[in-house]
């Protein structure tokens, strides 16, 4: 018996339980179709890839608020983002930081100011420490 099977047996994961009754999902189950839908297995695979692949830090210098989707895409892909808003007007920089803070909060990540008008957006699985 291999090590993995021994561990599975120890944890009680080697036994398969069979149920006599089938579950009726009824009509209240919503069927989602389309290109934007992502299955649970695809989400799990993406998360697993982000765990086993080396971390990536992306440095972005947005020039206008319309660059926000690029920041959001990198962050939602699990990448740590350093965002430098020094090249933006104060009003647009404020909007961008508000967007980034909402993005970090909504994705269970965090945002840290690391310099004047430079911010670090860290996904939930990235630990940020200061020395």
From TrEMBL:
GO terms for cellular component: cytoplasm. GO terms for biological process: division septum assembly; FtsZ-dependent cytokinesis. It is found in: Cytoplasm. InterPro entries: Cell_div_SepF (IPR023052), Cell_div_SepF/SepF-rel (IPR007561), SepF-like_sf (IPR038594). The keyword DNA repair does not apply. Cell division protein that is part of the divisome complex and is recruited early to the Z-ring. Probably stimulates Z-ring formation, perhaps through the cross-linking of FtsZ protofilaments. Its function overlaps with FtsA. Homodimer. Interacts with FtsZ. HAMAP family: SepF. Belongs to the SepF family. This is Cell division protein SepF.
